[in-house]
């Protein structure tokens, strides 16, 4: 029986690299994995899934996956969705159907919460409906587990207001522990300053 898996983590935890390596592993075994991401995420261009460490592979948009019939989806051995936090409730429901009725495993990678620690729609429903949930870990500058995403401005100061979705990478986001997110301290203190 196929399962829907949600692998979540903060930014910089190598979620996309893991997705790409998983697809490579399937191909290496002579199996077919289909990579998909929501159309909203076009940072790497149309039809490309790319990680910060330089790995990339062709992909389709989740919206295209939603239009595919069960017979076509059934020709794949696995569906791998990146940036799944941007999926809608209806899209996540369809991913459950792919696992339950087409019997193709679906593995989703994404953020659990936004820069204000609020859940994304896709993540909320993946957490409610996934058969398996696994944290992809990364660390805060202090060494604790980084479970929060912090958005920062051009001066390196943490931003606490704004639109939930603002595409960006290391130029506008960092990962921190919950404590330092609450304190708004997203960088190590300067030499001689008191550590929080």
Structure summarized in a few sentences:
The protein is α/β, with parallel strands linked by helices and 196 residues long.
Detailed description of the structure:
This protein has 196 residues and is of the alpha/beta class. The protein has a domain at 4-137: P-loop containing nucleotide triphosphate hydrolases (Rossmann fold), CATH 3.40.50. 27% of the residues lie in helices and 21% in strands. It contains six helices and eleven strands. It has helices at 15-28, 62-67, 70-73, 89-102, 121-129, 178-183, and strands spanning 4-8, 33-37, 48-50, 56-58, 60-61, 78-81, 106-110, 132-135, 148-152, 158-159, 173-176. A six-stranded parallel sheet has the order 5-2-6-7-1-8, sandwiched between helices. Strands 10-9-11 form a three-stranded antiparallel sheet. A two-stranded antiparallel ribbon has the order 3-4. Strand 9 (148-152) and strand 10 (158-159) form a beta hairpin. The longest helix is centred in the N-terminal third of the chain and has 14 residues, at 15-28. The mean pLDDT is 86.
CATH architecture name of one domain = 3-Layer(aba) Sandwich
- Cα-to-Cα separation, first versus last residue: 48 Å
- Radius of gyration in whole Å, from Cα? 18 Å
Strand order of the largest sheet: 5-2-6-7-1-8
Structural features:
Rossmann fold; three-stranded antiparallel β-sheet; single chain; six-stranded parallel β-sheet; alpha/beta; 11 strands; 196 residues
Could you give the topology of this structure?
Elements: E1 4-8, H1 15-28, E2 33-37, E3 48-50, E4 56-58, E5 60-61, H2 62-67, H3 70-73, E6 78-81, H4 89-102, E7 106-110, H5 121-129, E8 132-135, E9 148-152, E10 158-159, E11 173-176, H6 178-183
Parallel strand pairs: 1-7, 1-8, 2-5, 2-6, 6-7
Antiparallel strand pairs: 3-4, 9-10, 9-11
Helix pairs in contact: 4-5
């Amino acid at each position: 029986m196929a399962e829907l898996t949600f692998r979540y983590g903060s930014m910089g935890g190598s979620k996309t690299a893991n997705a790409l390596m998983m697809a490579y592993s399937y191909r290496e075994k002579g199996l077919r994995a289909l990579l998909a991401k929501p159309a909203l995420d076009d940072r790497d261009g149309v039809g490309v899934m790319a990680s910060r460490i330089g790995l990339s592979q062709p992909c389709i948009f989740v919206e295209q996956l939603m239009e595919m019939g069960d017979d076509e989806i059934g020709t794949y051995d696995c569906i791998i969705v990146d940036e799944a936090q941007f999926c809608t409730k209806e899209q996540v429901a369809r991913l459950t159907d792919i696992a339950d009725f087409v019997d193709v495993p679906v593995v989703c990678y994404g953020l659990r919460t936004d820069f204000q620690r609020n859940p994304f729609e896709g993540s909320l429903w993946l957490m409610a409906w996934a058969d398996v949930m696994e944290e992809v870990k990364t660390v805060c500058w202090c060494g604790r587990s980084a479970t929060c995403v912090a958005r920062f401005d051009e001066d390196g100061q943490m931003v606490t207001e704004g639109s939930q979705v603002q595409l960006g990478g290391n130029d506008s986001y960092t990962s921190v522990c919950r404590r330092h997110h609450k304190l708004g301290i997203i960088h190590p203190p300067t030499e001689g300053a008191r550590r929080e």
